[in-house]
């Protein structure tokens, strides 16, 4: 693997510190990009809502993000840097669904776009946490 190829892979994985800050210990977790993630639930404050079955998210290596918020499709630009992900403005379709699905969709869109999210992966699961502590819980979709 060339140095250029290795450098290109660095932003595609989520990394987090595992020791004291001064130790420099880092563990590399599973990649976040190039994977179809199913949205399982959303926790805002003390309330957890289960996601509609259609809720999905995928971030490509080139920074394109797309998915479904629970009713409407969306696309956006995404920046992945280490364990941090920032989504740009979401472009969405404008279908109307049940009030419950629309409420979930608005809450998910707000959580994804309120600022930089911290990503944590473990056992085919991904959690995106915003600065207020709200969390999007996702699972890696089964290969088709």
Automatic annotation (TrEMBL):
It comes from the Bacteria. Residues 30-137 form the DUF306 domain. Gene3D superfamilies: 2.40.128.270. Pfam families: META. Signal peptide: none annotated. This is META domain-containing protein.
């Amino acid at each position: 693997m060339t140095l250029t190829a290795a450098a290109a892979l660095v932003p595609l994985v989520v990394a987090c510190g595992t020791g004291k800050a001064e130790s420099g210990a880092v563990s590399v977790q599973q990649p976040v990009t190039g994977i179809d993630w199913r949205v399982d639930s959303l926790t805002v404050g003390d309330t957890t809502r289960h996601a509609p079955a259609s809720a999905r998210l995928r971030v490509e290596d080139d920074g394109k993000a797309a998915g479904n918020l629970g009713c409407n499709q969306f696309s956006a630009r995404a920046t992945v840097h280490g364990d941090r992900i920032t989504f740009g403005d979401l472009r969405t379709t404008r279908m109307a669904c049940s009030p419950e699905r629309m409420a979930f969709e608005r809450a998910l869109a707000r959580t994804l776009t309120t600022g930089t999210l911290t990503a944590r992966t473990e056992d085919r699961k991904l959690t995106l946490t915003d600065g207020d502590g709200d969390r999007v819980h996702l699972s890696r979709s089964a290969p088709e």
